[in-house]
Every structure is written in structure tokens, then in C-alpha cells.
Amino acid sequence: MQGATGGRHLLQREFDERAPVSRPCAVRPEPVLGHGEVPGESPEWRRPRPVVNNASMHVVVCVKQIPDPAAPASLEPGSHTLDRSGKLIMDDSDSYGVEMALQLAGAVEGSEVTLVSMAPGGETSGLRTALAMGAGRAILVSDEALAGSDALSTAKVLAAAIRRAEPDLVIAATESTDGYTGTMPVQLAELLGMPSVTFAKRISTDGVKVEVERQTEAGYDDVECPLPAVVTVTAGVVEPRYPSFKGIMAAKSKPIDVLSLADLGIDASAVGAPGARQEIVDVLDAEQRGAGEIVVDEGDGAQRIVAFLEQLKVI
Ligand SMILES: Cc1cc2nc3c(=O)[nH]c(=O)nc-3n(C[C@H](O)[C@H](O)[C@H](O)COP(=O)(O)OP(=O)(O)OC[C@H]3O[C@@H](n4cnc5c(N)ncnc54)[C@H](O)[C@@H]3O)c2cc1C
């Protein structure tokens, strides 16, 4: 399910110089090299900044609220799903999307950032954290009938909420920390009828199109697609800001619209447990890690480590 989808990209270029370069539509001209510059090694100042836009934008960020990973987790006995009855916090994965959105919106006056979340029990703690970082408002979809919703149902619900917000750009994390199927954002894009670009490590936009450096094993692809679009960001690519005391105080009075399924015009039978196409049939303990091998250096330590790694086919 992962990948840049839709065939609507204007340009996608593999940056590994050894790989054949395919130039299907438009090709960005090679920059003229400055003094001391090495071909293929762009200096930091030439690389696109996370934010280069000149039109005000409405950026919607998906924020999943999850049970605190630092606390012991428990599963619901019947459904094998995570017990979400306690306090939920913002998934750390989404703090990168929030930061990206704030940088994009912060560059142009009049831009705004809206958070969207689906969570049980009217939970807003995680949203308040993102509001304290600087987002302007939030939409929470919470409804008892959503219990047991799978990733597709979640995408249906979030799509309905996001459609009403009329965003220019939707940002989500590549995968959540608790469910980590990594499927929700591309389903969301499909339902919204928007192109999607995954694994973004840099985003820039002029308000009409979005340019994304899409992380790959070999380096990154340079992907461009029209707005509105859904972009998923990779964890660790920006430094999420800490909410300031002023931000925390301001977040208390920022608006959070709490919506039910009825508000969104969604039939309860299409989501929640009745509409789910995924079922967790069993949960098994992870395999115990075996004891490591201790190499005592008797003059041949390095060779023995190399032989050990070769045996594992790591080198
Ligand atoms: C059997 C089952 C039962 C479930 N029961 C419930 C339930 O009772 N109540 C409930 O609320 N959910 C429930 N869910 C939904 C689940 O918590 C996830 O939201 C959903 O399955 C998405 O899967 P994921 O976390 O693997 O998403 P991924 O595709 O890994 O998520 C990628 C990104 O999408 C965004 N995203 C994903 N989920 C949300 C969300 N909920 N809100 C905002 N952004 C989001 C985040 O940016 C996230 O990092 C259930 C799921 C399953 C499979």
C-alpha cells in the first residue's frame, strides 16, 4: 500500500546517480555549479527549504491519540485490540507532521493549521498538545459506534471530517506507533480523490503544487504533485518544537469541534465493528531474543567479529 500513488506526479526522479534517470515529463534543470561545488553534491543553501511558499494555505494534520507507550499496554480480551479507555496522548509520529505543517503555514501570513483526530471517549489531550505547539483549531470525531473501526473505517471517518475543512494540504505520519499498518493515509487520499506522496522528508509548496523529497533506500525521489494532496512524513525529519508555557495556556481556549457520525452523515453500520474488514484473530508474544555471542579479544577479535558478521550475511 505504501508508495507515491495516482500517476499524477509531474516529475519523479531517482537521485542515486548510478541509477538510470527517467525523465517522463518535466525535468528540473541542473543548477549551474558555484565555486568549489561538486557535481551531484548540492550544498545546504541550494537544497529546497522545508517551506518555500507564497500563497496562504490551509494545512490539515492527522493526529492520532494513542495510549501512552510508556505505560504498560493491555489488550481487550475479546477483540485483542488495545485498551484505549485510559488517557490518550498525541502519537509521537504525528509531532513531525504538526511541526512540518506549522513551518509551512508559518511562512505565509493568513495560513492556518487544523488538526483532525478520531478517538474514543471525546479524548482531546493529544490534540491540546498539538494546539499548544501552535495549531489553530482541531476537529475530533468521537462516537461510541466507532468502537472496532479498522483502518479503512478510520479513513472513511477522517475523510468526511477533512472534506468539510477544505484543506490545501493534508499531512499524516507514515505509520502510527500503536497500529502501524501504514495504510490509513493512502486510503484517505483515495477517498478524498487526492494524489498522495509518502515518506516525505522535505516538503515545499507554492500553494498550487507540492514538491516533496520522498525518502527511498537509495536516497530520495523528487516528487511534485498538484494540490490538494495527502503527504505522509517520515519520523525524525524535523525537530518538533516543545510547547511553550504561553502555547499551553493558549491551547486551553482554542476551538475543538467534536463531531459524531451523525454530524458527518456516516451510517454507523459502515464503520465500527460492523463495517470492519480487518479482525485481529490472535496475538502472540514476540520471540525472545537469544543470548548474544561474547567475543573475547585474544589478538584476533576483529577477525572473529568480521567472520561472525559474514556468517550472518550482514557484510
Ligand atoms: C480491530 C480494530 C479495532 C479498532 N478499534 C478502534 C476503536 O475502538 N476506536 C478507535 O478510535 N479506533 C479503533 N481502531 C482504529 C485504529 O486505532 C487506527 O486508527 C486505524 O486502524 C488506523 O490504523 P493504524 O494506526 O495502523 O494507521 P496507520 O496507517 O499506521 O497510521 C498512519 C497515520 O495516519 C494517521 N491516523 C491513523 N489513525 C488515525 C486516527 N484515529 N486519527 C487521526 N489520525 C490517524 C496518523 O497520522 C498516523 O500516524 C481499531 C482498529 C482495528 C484494526
State the gist of this model.
The protein is of the alpha/beta class and 315 residues long.
Distance between the termini: 30 Å
Radius of gyration: 22 Å
Structural class: alpha/beta
Strand content: 15-25%
In this entry the ligands are: flavin-adenine dinucleotide
**Major sheet summary line:** 10 strands, mixed
Read across the widest sheet, the strand sequence of neighbours is 1-10-9-8-11-7-2-5-6-12
Mean pLDDT: 83
Poorly predicted runs: 1-37, 42-53
Give the total of beta strands. 12
- What's the SSE pattern? EEEEHEHEHEHEEEEHEHHH
Q: Helix segment count?
A: 8
Which of globular, elongated, flat, extended, rod-shaped describes the shape? globular
Give helix % range.
Answer: 10-25%
